[in-house]
Amino acid sequence: MKKLRTDDDAPLPLQTANLPQSIQAHVINRLIVIHQLSLTLQTELDEERLLHIMLSGITAGEALGFNRALVFLLDSGGKSLVGKMAVGPINEEECRHVWQSLARKNLHLDDFVNEFDQFKKYQTAPINVQTKEITWPLEKGGRDIFARTIEEKTCFHITPEHYLDAVPEPVTDLLEVNEMITAPLVVTGKALGLVIADNKFSGRPIPEEDMQLLAIVANQTAAALSHIHLIQELEKFYTVLEEKVREAVAEKEKAQGEMIRSAKFATVGEMAVTIAHEIRNPLTAVRGFAQRLLRKSDDTETVRNYSEIIVQEVDRLNHVLGDVLDFAKNVDTHLSPVNLNEIIQNAVTLLQERFGRSNILCEMDLDPKIPICYYDGPQLTQVLINLMKNGAEAMKEGGVLEVRTKFEDGCCSLEVADTGCGIPKKELHSIFEPFFTTKTRGTGLGLAFAKRVVEEHGGQIYAKSECGQGTTFHICLPIQTRRPATEDVIESMGLAHPLVDRDDPFVSFDARGRNRAENEAN
Predict the structure, then answer these.
(1) CA 265 – CA 272 distance, rounded (Å)
(2) Are 52 and 60 in contact (CB under 8 A)?
(3) How many CA atoms lie within 13 A of 366 on its CB side?
(4) 388, 403 Cβ separation under 8 angstroms
(5) Which H or E run includes 133?
(6) The model's pTM
(7) Which of 115, 157, 442, 506 could bond 437 through an S-S bridge, CB–CB 3.0 to 4.6 Å?
């Protein structure tokens, strides 16, 4: 019964002093080859190729010279041994052919490894395929030779007299041999797996010297394998860390963007309230006196003209205030079941007269599959009017305004396209910023308001434009066929309050924006 320790205190029985010179030369040559094999193993960073190099060295004639070799590795939980690879011929005739071919070509270990590595013949070899199908569960204190090799970290020389009945049945059925050896892959006192070798076709007995050399190769492979696993863990850790850093940076940038945006909106709100309170009373007085003057002006046409101009300008200033306050106030989003196509039809009806005066043809292509959804109808009406007005103003010589809807990818898609002058590329990214405008008259809040309303609905809005070709605004609204539970909570708690008095008669729009939309349409 032969067992061989694989720790650092194991004796080295390779004694050559009393051997014939030819045998000494053979032993020394084998040691040189194993040294070369060791150097090769230490520099390999691919697990599959590492195992192939080890098995090739074990079965190479000028190294250990076993006929066949199999390697099993512990799974991630250390509960089972999993077949990973096998190298060796399938029968005696193939074995003889392989080694005669190597001898005839005068191939060395490096040639042997490179040739197999290049063509990867071992991958489709029957013994390799069958080995990879074997998974053997390990039981603590188990008496099978796999469990003992791993737990005792010891090489076992298996013969009919010793341990053969303890070999796992799948391995016995695969190898069909009465003599073999097992060697654990051990590094820093930890077993990573084991290797099995036999001489089925040559029938050469396995000497203790070969057990010693197999243990050396197995431990060197274990060290290299541990190195590969460590590198893989470091790479995995680096990948996870890199992703977490990327996420943290993205979150930080998002938070900073939200802070800047919140600060900008807060500033806009404060400015809007200040402007409203500072100029509301004078404007009310001016408009009141101008209306009285109109009612009593039967003297001259000049007085009437001036009065009309006063009223028009006051209305324009009122409209500007409306834009600012509409954008600045914190209006509740009241969701109700609405049909997006009907909202579009109503908005187009409101603007139809203006389109006629401007020689604009409005075409609608509405998808009948658009479902009834919970949206804020008045707010979306205001958004549509803003977009269609922008399109109409961009077509000073007339043109075609298209409004399209489509039900796709779980969302309601809405497009408003004009054939106007287009938006310069350098300005396209700024059009949704508050107060950004290229018009001589305008507050630059229409598109900012549209963006806020769409985003409050959980949707997205963006624009594509080509100078001289026109502009298309794309809106994607999520399908909401049921009333969100949070809507009732927000309404009942009264969390949303406007920054202006909803009952102020001076404001030309109510809290829902209905009057505002109708006034703008006219």
Answers:
(1) 10
(2) no
(3) 15
(4) yes
(5) none
(6) 0.46
(7) 442
